[in-house]
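in:
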């Protein structure tokens, strides 16, 4: 993806080429860079929500939770590439993406609830604590290896969330 390689200032012509559409088609669907960035970000959050359903159908509760949290780390990385432009263009992006955030949070809550029901994780776990921990690692921007750290943290969080026996 052009945004992954070049950040939020990726050439819109390059994006059109990569999508195998003409520039006119791209501009017809996304008349401004702001609208394209919003669509990309919204799509990332919606992928997270959709992944919950797929993982819940194909994995054990604890495996589904772990896989989703790792996908969340990838989504944070994508967001970091476009966040400065989103903030500049959109202002308070939390208002713009409130529905997408809600879908993503509901997906995580569903995974946690399923893992609690199966006995894989403790009953007092707050799903949002998992997100806060991962976002916190991502905000340590001085570390170029934050993604590796966040992936290790997923395993620490999952292990630490198991019931005390």
């Amino acid at each position: 993806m052009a945004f992954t390689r070049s950040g939020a200032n990726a050439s819109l012509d390059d994006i059109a080429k990569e999508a195998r559409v003409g520039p006119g088609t791209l501009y017809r669907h996304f008349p401004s860079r702001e609208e394209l960035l919003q669509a990309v970000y919204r799509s990332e959050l919606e992928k997270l929500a959709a992944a919950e359903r797929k993982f819940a159908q194909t994995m054990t509760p604890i495996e589904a939770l772990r896989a989703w949290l790792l996908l969340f780390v990838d989504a944070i990385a994508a967001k970091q590439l476009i966040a400065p432009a989103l903030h500049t263009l959109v202002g308070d992006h939390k208002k713009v993406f409130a529905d997408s955030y809600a879908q993503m949070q509901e997906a995580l809550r569903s995974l946690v609830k399923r893992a609690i029901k199966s006995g894989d994780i403790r009953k007092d776990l707050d799903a949002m604590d998992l997100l806060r921990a991962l976002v916190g690692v991502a905000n340590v921007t001085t570390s170029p290896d934050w993604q590796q750290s966040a992936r290790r943290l997923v395993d620490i969080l999952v292990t630490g969330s198991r019931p005390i026996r």
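note: The first helix runs from residue 2 to 6.
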